[in-house]
Write a structure and sequence with these properties.
Elements: H1 9-15, E1 23-24, E2 27-28, E3 33-36, E4 42-43, E5 92-94, H2 97-100, E6 137-138, E7 143-147, E8 154-158, E9 164-169, E10 176-181, E11 187-191, E12 200-207, E13 210-216, E14 223-228, E15 235-242, E16 244-248, E17 252-255, E18 258-259, E19 263-266, E20 268-273, E21 278-284, E22 294-298, E23 303-306, E24 310-318, H3 324-330, E25 334-345, E26 348-357, E27 364-367, H4 369-372, E28 382-390, E29 396-401, E30 410-414, H5 431-436, H6 439-448, E31 451-454, H7 459-475, H8 479-482, H9 487-504, E32 513-515
Parallel strand pairs: 5-32
Antiparallel strand pairs: 1-4, 2-3, 3-31, 6-7, 7-8, 8-11, 9-10, 11-16, 12-13, 13-14, 14-15, 15-24, 16-23, 17-18, 17-20, 19-22, 20-21, 21-24, 22-23, 25-26, 26-30, 27-29, 28-29
Helix pairs in contact: 1-7, 7-9
């Protein structure tokens, strides 16, 4: 059972230092609640011992499934943080989610061998859905959609910010009530072998930042593989044994300045739609290290198809300003595949990018606003002034380049602003205000009242109750409220131990379980 941690935020503030070696005893009433009164005895809970002080073999906990298109990213455990499977004698293991909402489009070898993410930006790809269509995902500034429900099949790339619309009145100083974005398949990677024949589609790998998807033709062994990374400037597709087909949402006006029609050969194609959109397509070798020419033929007014099978990489990038082209040309061969996060301490971390191709000129990648403000530029990371795109909900994305020469570029992030390590607000209540509002009297009444958390209650509402009780203990520890008197705090902590002991012992009716499918 996957439980939201947010329900226990307030509780965690107290439980962080709340020792259960001497847990207040709890009484179970006829309604099946853990309750506590000031007369309840103090007893020690019984927990299963750790056998021989051992933990499960880390080798049995999981593995990183590497594919040729997306190798392991950096060290296996770069930040020093590690979480092992809890032993089954402490918490029951379950794979029941396979019956309730099994993940879609995953290689069977991955299931139960890696914790499948449930809150990643690309989660729509694998989310259980009664609809055949895969909902869009947002790498930002691009929106991407795996089109596998009906022809024409392939992967679409769009810039949703330009289709933003808004309406209504919020009544707040003229602010709109809502805004949304259209889902337009502005550019589609496909192939002649799959465009009209449903391909096999799978997620084959992922990292902290990035996911690898694979399309396989039903009529051959040909494949299309793409590494999708949050903030990527280019969207890339590696073709093996397939005939590329590129489809637009609007009529194509010109290619490399020439009217649409006939054939065009090269390794770079500047494509302008009659809507005014401009995209640039690059053709590279399979390893991404060199340009590779391809011949494209117009097929109608909104599609280009290769004259033959192509083994190599096609990359596309939107061009919002013509001045971007020089920068896009320079960095076209440095292909981002994924990134892992390396946590240094509580104020610094790093994005360790995994790339392929030729990164002698550095990696070109978009950064979110808070990254823009905190990237350490002393290592040679440069902001590309004037190259800004907009996400759907996260504001402006600023392009940066890393120093050339490294196949594994890094963004070092250093937070300049201190994050307060306190469970109290930065502006605490003044003692005079506390006296005026009789907070101490109300606090005493609440602490001395009967406390109860139903054993068969939902984790959501039980969490709210626990948060309320834990918050009382925090208030009872505030000198502005109680002065130096700790008697209320001690009473509060004893009662909190009592009502929470069944949770700590995992003896609620709906016990916590360790999910072996999702992470």
């Amino acid at each position: 059972m996957k439980i939201s941690a947010s329900a226990f935020i307030g509780l965690s503030a107290v439980l962080h230092h709340l020792h259960f070696s001497a847990v207040a005893g709890q009484a179970i009433d006829k309604n099946g609640s853990s309750s506590f009164s000031n007369d309840s005895p103090v007893v020690a809970p019984t927990f299963a011992p750790v056998v021989n002080n051992t933990e499960p073999d880390a080798g049995d906990v999981g593995f990183t499934n590497s594919s040729a298109s997306n190798p392991d990213v950096g060290d296996e455990n770069p930040s020093g943080f590690h979480a092992s499977e809890p032993p089954s004698y402490l918490v029951e293991h379950t794979d029941a989610m396979m019956g309730l909402c099994p993940p879609r489009f995953l290689d069977s070898s991955v299931i139960k061998n890696r914790a499948i993410p449930t809150n990643n930006w690309w989660g729509n790809i694998i989310a259980h859905d009664s609809n055949a269509a895969i909902q869009p995902i947002w790498s930002n500034p691009y929106s991407l959609q795996m089109v596998v429900d009906k022809a024409p099949f392939g992967m679409s790339v769009s810039y949703p910010y330009r289709s933003r619309f808004s309406g209504g009145s919020s009544g707040n100083n003229g602010a709109v009530k809502f805004y949304a974005h259209g889902m337009v398949r502005e550019f589609v990677f496909s192939a002649e072998e799959i465009v009209w024949q449903k391909p096999n589609f799978q997620v084959v790998d992922w990292a902290d930042q990035g996911v690898t998807v694979k399309f396989t033709a039903g009529s051959s062994s040909g494949t299309m593989v793409s590494d999708l990374v949050s903030g990527m400037v280019y969207s890339s597709m590696k073709y093996s044994g397939l005939t590329p087909r590129l489809v637009s949402s609007a009529a194509i006006s010109t290619i490399n300045g020439q009217p649409m029609g006939g054939q065009v050969r090269g390794s770079k194609f500047e494509i302008v739609y009659n809507s005014g959109q401009k995209w640039v397509v690059y053709a590279l070798s399979s390893d991404g290290r060199s340009e590779k020419e391809i011949t494209l033929t117009a097929d109608g007014n909104s599609a280009l198809k290769s004259t033959g099978v192509f083994d190599g990489i096609l990359r596309v990038a939107m061009v919002l300003e013509s001045s971007w082209l020089t920068t896009l040309d320079e960095h076209k061969s440095c292909i981002v595949q994924a990134a892992n996060i390396d946590l240094h301490d509580d104020s610094s971390y790093a994005f360790k990018w995994k790339t392929t191709g030729d990164c002698s000129c550095g990696l070109l990648h978009y950064a979110m606003k808070h990254h823009t403000e905190t990237i350490d530029k002393s290592s040679g990371v440069r902001q590309m002034d004037g190259m800004v795109a907009y996400s759907t909900t996260r504001g402006a994305y600023q392009a940066f380049t890393t120093p050339g020469g490294s196949a594994d570029p890094v963004w070092e992030i250093k937070e300049a602003q201190q994050v307060p390590e306190d469970f109290y607000p930065s502006r605490k209540i003044a003692s005079t205000m506390a006296q005026q509002q009789r907070i101490l009297d109300h606090l005493r009444e609440d602490i001395n009242a009967g406390w109860s958390i139903p054993l068969d209650g939902s984790y959501y509402f039980n969490g709210k109750a626990a948060q309320k009780y834990a918050s009382l203990c925090l208030i009872a520890n505030d000198p502005a409220i109680v002065g130096g008197d700790k008697s209320l705090l001690n009473s509060c902590l004893n009662k909190l131990r009592g009502v929470m002991a069944p949770f700590v012992a995992n003896s609620w009716t709906n016990k916590l379980q360790y999910d072996k499918i999702y992470g």
